[in-house]
Design brief:
Number of domains of chain A: 1
CATH superfamily of chain A: Aldolase class I
Number of helices of chain A: 12
CATH class of chain A: Alpha Beta
Oligomer: homodimer
Shape of chain A: globular
CATH architecture of chain A: Alpha-Beta Barrel
Radius of gyration of chain A: 18 Å
Largest interface: A-B, 41 and 41 residues
Strand content of chain A: 5-15%
Strand order of the largest sheet of chain A: 1-2-3-4-5-6-7-8
Structural class of chain A: alpha/beta
């Protein structure tokens, strides 16, 4: 029921990395530690098991198991937006129903991403199939617009049809297109939806446009600084202080430009935790080579990217 | 062992459609019938559970179940190349091991298709992870180069590294790029690999370049004509007769241009079999609308596209 369902967290959400074990299996204990650390260091919530979390490289059983581990360890599900999209409709149904049953704040659902192109009717049918298939009033769907990765943009007409058809089950969207005008336009034109920027570079503009915040990869390593920006905006709005902090956020985010972001952030955390195993990634990703790793870590140090 | 493993079929392979039941579940009995009908009407083999078979829209359990149904019904596994690619490495490992254990001629494996871009090292690691994970000498891998759909091209350097590293486990590739020079170049430069064209439009050129044949969607509805071309080429080479038949094959293939190919072919078979349920597709696909369907069927009739 809407009245008792946890509202999705606003502000700063990290698109959490998923650490692995030596055999490339997901490392649940490391994952729980990382998620707690993010929530203790500036994150209002977490986007778990999404693109940055390498979720599409995991089986359905692995994805379920990681979410179970978080919730069993006491991480509050009301602070979690869970990636539950999949190429196959039954997989997306199963993962979305599972997250809803656990009381998670929402499911961030990328369109089915193999067959291309997809018609507007087909995209509507895919989301409707997930919502109907999950069959749970507690489900909250966040549409994931990330055409560069999924190959499937989500047109405004489909957003409007889904919101009309499914009421408050369709709760928001994340825009990772990198197109600032597109995402602020969505926040203005769909005020009933919680619109998140996919990058902390645009946190201030999306907040000013009425958006909900950001769900960002960079927050895995810069959450305290992004949180300072969000706090300043809540206190004083978009004044000089917030603008300065937004610049600092963008500067730190720039450290990740031009490198393979997931392996790079994992290497940074491996060094900070003195846990080389943290650097592991699953194919098709590969760890940074030694020279790239050294250059990246030196650049992070030079920029003052210091993990708590 | 190489000596006893079935060699992949050469010539005309249909990328078989997967019919559905009323509840959108895969319809195993209809699938068995369709595959038998294709093998009885000109196909030397079948590419099952690939793009045209909507396989990425099915769960791993559904994909396994459909292959089990075929083999249990007596369709010879030596005539099957099975799509076993997946976004998630463990899914691709499970599906590839399953197909190899059933004695299938090969696995057609698309690169993991969510994360982009993928480095050459990462692509090699993904295929190596599948081969090592399946751990079966009977496995035969056909690399699937289809950048428009997967978003991940397979560079020549990766083909060469995989062939060097895994010997005759890497048995061939299918090129659905639509780039004739690319596919004939691969056939010439990798003579140890069985190279298939993804379209029957290029069957004659790929055969002349030393390729193995085609694995094509269109063959679901035009296999007898493509088989006539292949038979003529085997008898008399690329003379006037073969060129005329190649033109006829291309003309029939043109009937499918500009329509959603999977729903259109399913509609054609539904009419031929007087079985409206055959037209069902799974989201994100949708059936043709009534007007599009009528226009497509009229065009097929006008072109003389007659199913056996």
């Amino acid at each position: 029921m809407a009245a008792t369902h946890p509202t999705a967290p606003r502000g700063v959400l990290a698109a959490a990395l998923t650490p692995l074990a030596a055999d490339s299996a997901p490392a649940a204990a490391r994952f729980v530690d990382h998620c707690r650390w993010l929530l203790d260091n500036g994150c209002d919530g977490l986007g778990v098991l999404g693109t940055t979390g390498e979720a599409m490289s995991f089986s359905v059983a692995e994805r379920r198991g990681l979410l179970d581990a978080l919730v069993e360890a006491g991480v509050p599900p009301r602070r979690l937006i869970v990636g539950t999209g999949a190429a196959a409709l039954p997989d997306a149904v199963e993962l979305s129903a599972h997250a809803a049953a656990l009381g998670c704040a929402g499911c961030l659902i990328v369109p089915p991403f193999y067959l291309k192109p997809v018609s507007e009717d087909g995209l509507f049918a895919a989301y409707a199939g997930i919502i109907d298939g999950a069959g749970d009033d507690r489900l909250r769907v966040f549409l994931y617009h990330f055409p560069q990765m999924s190959g499937i943009p989500i047109p405004r007409a489909v957003i409007a049809r889904l919101a009309d058809a499914f009421g408050n089950i369709v709760a928001g969207l994340k825009d990772s297109s990198g197109d600032l005008d597109h995402m602020t336009g969505l926040a203005r034109d769909f005020p009933a939806l919680a619109v998140y920027s996919g990058t902390e570079r645009y946190l201030l503009p999306i907040l000013e446009a009425g958006g909900a915040g950001c769900i960002s990869a960079g927050a895995n390593v810069t959450a305290p600084v992004i949180a300072a920006l969000y706090g300043e905006w809540k206190r004083s709005g978009a004044g000089e202080g917030a603008r300065c902090l937004q610049q600092r956020v963008a500067q730190l985010r720039g450290v990740l430009d031009g490198v393979a972001m997931i392996p790079a952030m994992k290497a940074l955390i491996a060094r900070r935790r003195d846990d080389p195993g943290w650097a592991a990634v699953r194919p098709p990703l590969v760890p940074l080579g030694d020279a790239d790793r050294a250059a990246f870590l030196a650049g992070a140090d030079a920029a003052g990217l210091v993990l708590p």
